[in-house]
Amino acid sequence: MISQIIKCSYQCTDTNHDFIFPKFNGNADAVSIVMVSEAPSIEHANYYYESNEGSFFLTTKTAFEDAGINIQSYNDVTEMGIYLTTAIKCSKIKYLVSSKTIKECALKYLEKEIFRFNNLKVIMCMGDFAIKAVNYIFKNKYNIYPIQQGSTYKIRKEQHSYNNIRFLPSYTQTGDSFNLEQSKRKMIAEDIKLAMDIVTK
Predict the structure, then answer these.
(1) What is the mean pLDDT of residues 74-95?
(2) Of 6, 37, 15, which is closest to residue 170 (Cα–Cα)?
(3) Which tens digits make up the pLDDT trace of 140-169?
(4) DSSP characters for 116-172?
(5) d(C-alpha 5, C-alpha 7), whole Å
(6) Selected residue with higher pLDDT from 83 and 181
(7) Do the domain assignments include residue 176?
(8) Is 56 a residue whose pLDDT tops 50?
(9) Which pLDDT band, with edges at 50, 70 and 90, does 1 fall under?
(10) Is 14 a member of any domain?
(11) CB 3.0–4.6 Å: which of 84, 109, 159, 184 could bond 171 by disulfide?
């Protein structure tokens, strides 16, 4: 857990201002994969690390099962060295939010989350918000966009690396659309397999 979480002063108009942060209790030094999806659910009981019965866990569980990996709890995910979070920390009012909102949240919160993991090998960017957020962070810190621009189905086939970290642009494994788009489910499973292959080499 980040020792001091200060809620932002930026008054975005595209979120519900219902700040929530992952309640992760694992060993930061054991984390090798950070999996960033897009935004919290309006129902906070569905958010990461809140409940093994919440929708975020259930769809993530299905995504891992699609990849041939059985998980039954958040503890299983943690034991594999995976940390789960979102690009923004408040739920959305509508389907999209502004780039300014994503950047504000990325630089204030997500950057601190990512860089507390000293043994990080892979950042999985699950959806457009996550891709933008991670690019903002690395542009701010290193003056580089590690993930090239373009449609996700195209750029996910390319290798994106910087500072011994692999970046995997993918699709979000949370939300209602996950169970509706089978082609994206297949690609998410492929990306999870790739992430696990990278960290086990």
Answers:
(1) 96
(2) 37
(3) 999 999 999 999 999 999 999 999 999 999
(4) T-TT--EEEEESHHHHHHHHHHHHHHHS--SS--S-HHHHTTS-EEETTEEEEEE--
(5) 6
(6) 83
(7) yes
(8) yes
(9) very low
(10) no
(11) 184
Q: Where are the alpha helices (DSSP H) in the chain?
A: 55-66, 74-79, 99-105, 111-114, 128-142, 152-155, 182-200
pLDDT surpasses 80 at 46:
yes
Strand pairing of 33-37 and 122-126? parallel
**Residues written for the chain:** 201
Domain membership flag for residue 37: yes
| Residues in Cβ contact with 38 at an 8 Å cutoff, skipping those fewer than 6 apart | 86, 87, 88, 126, 127, 128, 129, 130, 172, 174, 175
- Tokens at 122, concatenated: 């892979």
Residue 2 — very low, low, confident or very high, per pLDDT cuts 50/70/90?
A: very low
Domains held by the chain: number: 1
Mean pLDDT over each residue of the chain, to the nearest integer: 93
Which domain does 33 fall in, by range? 28-200
SS3 177: helix
The CATH number given to whatever domain includes residue 106 is 3.40.470.10
- Six-digit token string for 79: 């034991």
> Does residue 2 fall inside a structural domain?
no
